[in-house]
Amino acid sequence: MATINTANLISIGELAKRSGIAASALRFYESRGLISSVRGPAQRRQFQREVLRRVAFIRAAQTAGLSLEEIETTLTEYLHQFCRCFAD
Q1: Model-level pTM?
Q2: DSSP assigned state of 44
Q3: SS3 for 2?
Q4: Tens-digit pLDDT profile for the chain (88 aa)?
Q5: Are 66 and 58 in contact (CB under 8 A)?
Q6: Which residues pair with 45 in a beta bridge?
Q7: CB neighbours (10 Å) of residue 66?
Q8: Please, are residues 45 and 16 in contact by the beta-carbon 8 Å criterion?
Q9: Largest alpha-carbon pair distance within the chain?
């Protein structure tokens, strides 16, 4: 299991502020499996900074007219291809 560098974690409030996406929408994305968090002190959600790129992709894809289902499929396929490249 990979370890998480806690120095690269940001709160849901910081993610919302930096991405321009409401915290409620981020929680919804998380419930759909589009992004993931870890629980920090007091069981608060904390996100790896890389999630900012993922949220930017989700927002751009929605603006382009993709549904959340299409975005989820696209992200899953991308991650599958990305991981397969490292396995080769």
Answers
A1: 0.78
A2: -
A3: coil
A4: 455 666 789 999 999 999 999 999 999 999 999 999 998 778 889 999 989 999 999 999 999 999 999 999 988 887 666 655 544 4
A5: no
A6: 39
A7: 15
A8: no
A9: 41
CA distances to 2, 33, 55, 64, 86 from 60, in Å: 29, 17, 9, 6, 27
Q: Which two tokens stand for residue 17?
A: 């502020």
* The pLDDT of residue 2: 54
Rg (CA), the chain: 14
Residue found under tokens 């968090």: 37
Gap between the Cα atoms of 33 and 59, Å rounded: 15
**Helix segments in the chain, DSSP class H:** 12-19, 23-31, 51-63, 68-87
- The strand order across the sheet containing 38-39 reads 9-11, 45-48, 38-39
Name, in order, each residue with C-beta under 8 angstroms of 34's C-beta and a sequence gap of 6 or more: 54, 58, 68, 71, 72, 75
